[in-house]
Automatic annotation (TrEMBL):
Example GO molecular function: nucleic acid binding
Annotated spans, Disordered: 1-20
Record domain DNA/RNA-binding protein Alba-like: where: 20-81
Signal sequence segment: none
A Pfam family: Alba
Organism of this sequence: Solanum tuberosum
This protein's name: DNA/RNA-binding protein Alba-like domain-containing protein
InterPro entries the record matches: Alba-like_dom_sf (IPR036882), DNA/RNA-bd_Alba-like (IPR002775), UCP030333_Alba (IPR014560)
Length: 105
């Protein structure tokens, strides 16, 4: 629990209050759920940020390509980084790939 609290405390205000960010999972929702949600966010905010960890990164890339190929979005910015994740509070950190992609309509 301490690791989670430390991570939250280190976040900037802009990160915690991002209303147009979608955190994508490749196991919880279908691909087209995220495509349709992204379209809705772009109508509301004119921009959407897709975020994914590990294996879900390919899902974000697919969503972005669907939106771009159908003329709904244009790439604005793509960032890749590595974050340390812990399964248990006392466990060793495991590095995970993270992708942040911004699209705008």
């Amino acid at each position: 629990m301490e690791g989670i609290t430390e991570g939250v405390n280190k976040m900037s205000v802009s990160e915690t209050q991002k209303k147009n960010r979608i955190q994508v999972s490749n196991t919880k929702k279908s691909l087209f759920f995220y495509v349709n949600l992204s379209k809705r966010y772009m109508q509301q905010y004119n921009e959407v940020e897709l975020s994914a960890l590990g294996m879900a990164i390919s899902t974000v890339v697919t969503i972005a390509e669907i939106l771009k190929n159908n003329g709904f979005a244009v790439e604005k910015k793509i960032r890749t980084l590595t974050v340390d994740m812990r399964d248990d509070p006392g466990a060793r950190p495991i590095p995970k790939a993270k992708l942040l992609g911004s699209l705008w309509s």
